[in-house]
Amino acid sequence: MKPLVIIAGPTAIGKTLVSIELAKRVNGEIISADSMQVYRGMDIGTAKIKNEEMQGITHYMIDIMEPYDTFNVSVFKNYAKECINRIYDKNKLPIIVGGTGFYIQAVLYDIDFKEYDEDKALKIRQKYEALSQERGIDFVYEYLQSMDPDAAALIPKQNKKRVIRAIEYYELTGEKISVHNKKEREKKSLYNDAYFVLTDRREKIYENIDKRVDIMMKEGLLSEVRGLYEGGISESSTAMQGLGYKQLYKYLKGEYDLDTAVYKIKQETRHFAKRQLTWFKREKNAIMLDKNSFKDDTAGILDEMLIILKEKGIFDGA
Description:
About 55% of the residues lie in helices and about 10% in strands.
């Protein structure tokens, strides 16, 4: 099996710095597994890496879509596999970096996404979006519980996107998403992989998130979002579901004052980080690297990664 490295973890954990340093040491190139960094013109709110920060390391899956385009896990898997093969052709090591666990899982286990009518999928999505607005998310969630209780037990009610996605999948395919996911989890990785997950004390992660949001606002996040808003990008587009963009759209529409919008960005990003941690802890092959276990966290983590890569035969140290 060909080698593949993954560096995952919750938002604001420090994946970018570690991935750059590792890539320099192992002759690697980086594939972004971030569902929002694919969009052009969405730089500040996605914490998109700047060219000078790449330090000469080639990055893939950044700035490949327009904000009005639809991007999902199936599209990501196909693009990512192409990038992996391009990196192999250069005799380099592919490193997938990001916090979108489902995207990573799709590549590792070659998850099968049934082909279905996108127009029909959009209509179903819109139907349940409207129902959640009219009758509340409780009503939609109760329908998911009656239709697929196993899926409902794993999806937080507040995560409207995933609730509707589970319903959409069932109504399109006739198969419960919990059954589909169970079958996919039983698959083995296609690669000789090292799946690293960075962790830290939860309060430290939350503190980093709050600081990052404050920095984003100072760097002009509101202006970035206003440009998209005035450019006609729909609030319902996939791109505008991103943290920061969604809340500031509501501010621009007059639904929130600015302080409330910023508070909600921080709050919902913290909730997102908590869900990310839960997801990665369930991954069967994940190698958890707690930053508190290393005196000099970046150098220590890199040394530990290199030891593991050598043990797995992914990197010979030459």
